[in-house]
Structures are given as structure tokens and as C-alpha cells.
Sequence to fold (86 residues):
Amino acid sequence: MANHASAEKRIRQTKVRTARNRTTLSRMRNSLKKVEDALKLKDKGKAQEALKLAQPEVMKTAQKGIIHANMAARKISRLSARVKGL
Fold:
């Protein structure tokens, strides 16, 4: 348990930031799942639309430091290649 006011404040801030990061990460994962689902159905138009919406979500997540920039680039690159290959 925290004994100092500053430590208590850090605990409060950590809770808020963790919740915010989880929300952002969850939004990103859901957008990626939509692209995956469209790829499974082999629906190129739907996959392209889903990818167009997923790209900004992934980049925002990386920009906020929740995931690494290289991870974001890799995910977008691999999904783009799979959509293009349909």
C-alpha cells in the first residue's frame, strides 16, 4: 500500500491510463478482426473497406505508444498483402 500522497496519485493515474490503453488496444484488435473476417469470406471489397478503417486505428495505437511502430507497420503490411492477393 502506498504511504505517500505522490505514490497514491501514481496509482490513480496508472488505473486511468491502463483503462485508456486497453480501450485503444481493443479497438485496434476489433478492427483487425473485421479485416480477417472479410478475408475468410474472400470478399475483396469488404476486406478493402475494413482495411481502410483499420489502418488509422493501428497507426493511432502506435502513435500513442501502446504498440511499437514496427509492429503497426508489420500488421498493416501483412494485411495489405493478403487483401491484395484476393
Remarks:
- The CA atoms of residues 22 and 66 lie 9 Å apart.
- The helical segments are 5-40, 44-63, 69-84.
- Residues 5-40 form the longest helix (36 residues).
